[in-house]
Amino acid sequence: MTSHLYRFFPALEDRAITVPAGSVAEVLQAVNQLAPGFTDYILDERGALRRHVYLSVDDAIVVDRKTLSDRVPEHGVVYIFQALSGG
Amino acid sequence: MSDMLILGTRKGTVIFERTNVAWRPRPIAHAGIPVCYAARDPRDGTLWASLDHGHWGPKLSRSRDGGKTWQDTSSLKYPEGARYIVKYLPTPDFDPEAPVGQPEYQDATVFKIWHLAFGSAEQAGRIYAGTIPGGLFVSDDGGDSWTLNRPLWNHESRGGDLFAGEATSENRWGGTPASIDYGVFEPGIHSIVVDPRDPNRIHVAVSSAGVLETADGGQTWQGRNNGLLMDYLPNPAADWGHDPHFMTNCIGQPDHLWQQNHCGVFYSDDGARHWRKVSLADAGVHFGFPIAVDARDGRTAWVVPARADSERMAIGGGLCVARTTDGGQTWQAFRAGLPQEHAYDIILRHGLDIAGDCLCFGSTTGNVYLSEDRGETWQCLGNHFPPVYSVRFG
């Protein structure tokens, strides 16, 4: 994940986090169990992906930004990116 | 006399402390994170910063040790079922004569926590927060949990109770350009004024709707826009659509309310039941964002005039602060200590504050100025701060 998130969730820093396969939403909720509040940074209060955040499962960009129903297969890797610009 | 200044800036929270010889800034807190508003709760000394994360959503950050450590919270959220009627920026082919279509609804999420206000000394833990898209939130536990004020959210001027179903009235609230950074065109609550005599009486100012008042602790709300004028609309005196930039009151005379907006400075001495325009464009007092009011004399107020509306910077390249002591009948401009050439500063709506005889303002150019003599002379506290969004004495 983008290293900027480690500032808010230092417990996740430099860890390979392994959680059960499922939907992207389920994977994020599992990470939230490890780092309470984590999903509030990635998702809005409706569970939709925040505007400037991008997720991919392996090299496929997550398509369902509203409910995050894209599937994460066994041994799949979820990546979290942020769109950075400006100064 | 206050010994602390708290600045919300584009790059974090800057806290100044008064020493024996000068005001000194501490190292920046929330480094790199835009802070759109920061203030100190006078009841228990808690410091608050509203973080305007570009990626991670708005968060409140709280310090209970005077700013040594901060804890972020994500607890301010719109409840399930909170919806609003979507507004769009008018496009070049906008046809005002076209029939109004069916309203389009959107589930509400917080885009910006724009303003915080604190309850009375008897209301331990009561805090108010105003947001884009136009919700007023209330906490009674010091910010651990928040509740949307539904009577204001469901106000008939906004389409009625959308929790219950379809709109039952027209949405008369506009959208503020301040919301466009979030990809929407929605209103925002930027001014929450609690009457110190009666904490059940609260005024809020909304971009771009106007002023509303409750006298029953938020159970019912009434528009308070009588006398406000919008030069930019066909009906300048319409009930709704006003765009106050900031509204505040006199602590000692709470029926004296002031606001600065696109179309002038407006003053009320009857609790916002009637406003009157008191700006003097010929004297340069017309357009601006912030306004400060004396704590004892409701007729005395300060503004930082700017050139309206297309330029939005200091008039003639020189900064001044204007003061009235007679309810806006006359204004006096003070320039001592402020730059008088090549100054392009603009002061945003929360960028000016007063505490006793001290005033302070910070600009989008990163300049911070302080006066200890009621605005007559000024000293510079620094020229290289990030763009300043808010200034509050602690």
From TrEMBL, chain B:
UniProt record, GO biological process: xyloglucan metabolic process
InterPro entries per the UniProt record, alphabetical: WD40/YVTN_repeat-like_dom_sf (IPR015943), Xyloglucanase_GH74 (IPR052025)
Gene3D superfamilies: YVTN repeat-like/Quinoprotein amine dehydrogenase
Signal sequence range: none
Origin superkingdom: Bacteria
Protein name: Glycosyl hydrolase
Lineage, broadest ranks: Bacteria, Pseudomonadati, Pseudomonadota, Gammaproteobacteria, Methylococcales
